[in-house]
Write a structure and sequence with these properties.
Layout (H helix, E strand, L loop, with lengths): L12 H7 L7 H9 L6 E5 L5 H6 L5 E6 L2 H13 L5 E5 L13 E7 L7 H11 E13 L16 H12 L4 E2 L2 E2 L6 H6 L7 E5 L5 E4 H9 L13 H15 L4 E4 L3 E8 L1
Parallel strand pairs: 1-2, 1-4, 2-3, 4-5
Antiparallel strand pairs: 5-11, 6-7, 8-11, 9-10
Helix pairs in contact: 1-8, 6-9
The structure holds S-adenosylmethionine.
The site of S-adenosylmethionine (SAM) has 21 residues, from helix 3.
Length: about 270
């Protein structure tokens, strides 16, 4: 079981929206069709971070709740909703393990965007089962690099992930860190769900964005948005790390433009 450490994303929230590649552009259409979403019912987005899925999916429901324990992430989510004139999202600071009490009510869909693995998965899935309306769905969304064919590379060079990760290792040591300890091991989420009242889920892949292009600062922000290379881990060497990443990126692309391929978007769907 993962015990929540409030420092895992220290300093990461401001980098998140700018630095993380978007999930598949087909995600809304896929969920609307698979789950017969018609603008009614409620969405609960757990581990919503800066509201990535909450803001993207709320128009498929009457209202949404974005739940996350990290106040900086929630502040970014609120800001993103305000910028888009979205007023039907309630933001709740709580752990998934605090469900159902933290966000009572009945939901048509409960989503986890790259967040389920941070939680006490079986207990949380069972709590989600209880808050879903009959026929409602638990939906786990993640990038899945390596699951499908890699599209042909467009003009800009790919992000030199291996070289940036070597820099992270130079500063932080080998073995991924998170918060005050080591990053938790991840289990196959579909197997976890299969062991709950949901039973065996469906796994669907939505095509990733094939021609996503990012600039140097966005690539750097992407790394600062990861728990294992969040700004706080570098202490007073954070600027030195940023400088080395910028130098590396300049060497790989004088124009400062990179192709990003985070993979297709995996959607694990479990109905009540
Ligand atoms: C990788 S971010 C995902 C953000 C967003 N859902 C997305 O799709 O990009 C993981 C989020 O899970 C949150 N989180 C970590 N432990 C959690 C827990 N026990 N319950 C709920 N959320 C948690 C973190 O604060 C963080 O905002």
């Amino acid at each position: 079981m993962v015990r929540y450490d409030p420092t895992i994303y220290d300093g990461a929230a401001v980098h998140y929206r700018y630095g993380r590649p978007a999930y598949s552009s087909d995600l809304e259409a896929l969920l609307a069709e698979e789950l017969d979403l018609d603008g009614s019912g409620r969405l609960l987005d757990v581990g919503c971070g800066p509201g990535i899925l909450t803001v993207r999916l709320v128009h498929l429901f009457a209202e949404a709740v974005g739940l996350d324990p990290d106040p900086e992430m929630l502040a970014e989510g609120r800001r993103a909703a305000e910028e888009r004139g979205i007023a039907n999202i309630a933001w709740v600071q709580a752990l998934a393990e605090d469900l159902p009490g933290a966000a009572p009510g009945t939901y048509r869909v409960v989503t986890f965007g790259s967040s389920f693995w941070w939680t006490d998965e079986v207990r949380v899935a069972e709590a989600v089962y209880d808050v879903l309306e009959p026929g409602g769905a638990l939906v786990l969304v993640t990038h899945k690099a390596g699951a499908g064919a890699v599209p042909p590379s467009p003009e800009p060079p790919p992000i030199p992930h291996a070289e940036i990760e070597a820099l992270v290792e130079k500063y932080l040591g080998s073995g991924r860190r998170a918060g005050q300890g080591a990053a938790p091991a991840r289990s196959a989420e579909e197997d976890v769900i299969a062991g709950t009242r949901f039973g065996v889920p469906r796994v669907i892949f939505a095509p990733g964005i094939p021609d996503l292009v990012r600039d140097t600062e966005s690539v750097l922000s992407g790394y600062f948005s990861f728990s294992w290379s969040a700004p706080h881990l570098f202490g007073d060497r954070v600027e030195a790390f940023a400088t080395e990443v910028r130098e590396l990126l300049r060497a790989r692309s004088p124009e400062g433009i990179f192709w990003d391929w985070p993979g297709d978007t995996e959607v694990i769907l479990a109905r009540k």
